[in-house]
Amino acid sequence: RVEFPDGWAAIEGIDAFPTPDHTTSVDGTLSYRFRGLEESTELFFRDVVLGPEVIEVPEIGIDLRVVDVNGRARFGLPDALDADLTLAVDLEEVNPALTPPRAAHGTVDVDVRAEGTTGEPVVSLTVAGQHLGADVPGVFTPLLTYEIGEVRAAAVATKEGLEIPQILLPWADGRIVAGGRIDRDLVLQEGHGTAERLRLLPLLQAFDAAPTPWVDFRADAEIVCSGSLKPLRLAGTFAFGVADLHVGDRPLESPGAKYLLA
Q: Residues 103-135: pLDDT tens digits?
């Protein structure tokens, strides 16, 4: 049992049943509680190899409301690592752990590939989010709703840091593409990002800066930067271009709004 702030997790009732072919079946119960989230699920792993040279779980299946975990793992003793896992996360099931009116929406699929050694592992991640969104309280607007949609990302983690080849994020009727490398001291190296065809109006609304904007435009941007992430101190170059500038005589989404500048 592991205790942590606002909750705990435990694996209990572990039993192992040796079979005639020198493998073992292992079962038990996984339980956890975190704020308003609490559940238990039965664990059952077949054909587990517990040998002097290798420990292998050929089929992993853990079924929880928040996440389903499937895959396989092999540990060549003393320290070789070889594992593949897939995680399917339902963000709606996370909401009992959030303080209303905060809420998360959508699903996230994660593929994990781990190899190398336990002392120097290499973990590759691919992440795909579908129908993503979030509700958060605002200042001028009681409830802000972010409709993000689909997100794609890839990363490789080693003991030296995190390599992020690409993050693809649709945002404000355009898209953002970013990447870079973060070392173990939380220093961003070779950070880069581009924004394509972003609209100002939904950004002002999303960040609660202006619920009823009078100004809108589309923008392209390119950033190259590096520096510390904690404390945040980045430096680099920035290019910014604007098109389709519109200035209204009243909020642009109001009936009868006319352009003063277009």
A: 999 999 999 999 999 899 999 999 999 999 999
CA 226 to CA 182: how far, in whole Å?
Answer: 9
Strand partners, 198: 219
Which are the contacts of 18, defined by CB distance < 8 A and separation ≥ 6?
A: 24
What is the enclosing helix (H) or strand (E) of 206? helix 200-206
The sign of the dihedral angle between the CA atoms of 179, 181, 184, 186 is: negative
* Maximum Cα–Cα distance across the chain: 84
pTM score above 0.90: no
Q: How far apart are CA 259 and CA 242, in angstroms?
A: 17
Per-residue DSSP letters for 221-233? EEEEEEEEETTEE
The H or E element containing residue 147 is strand 143-158
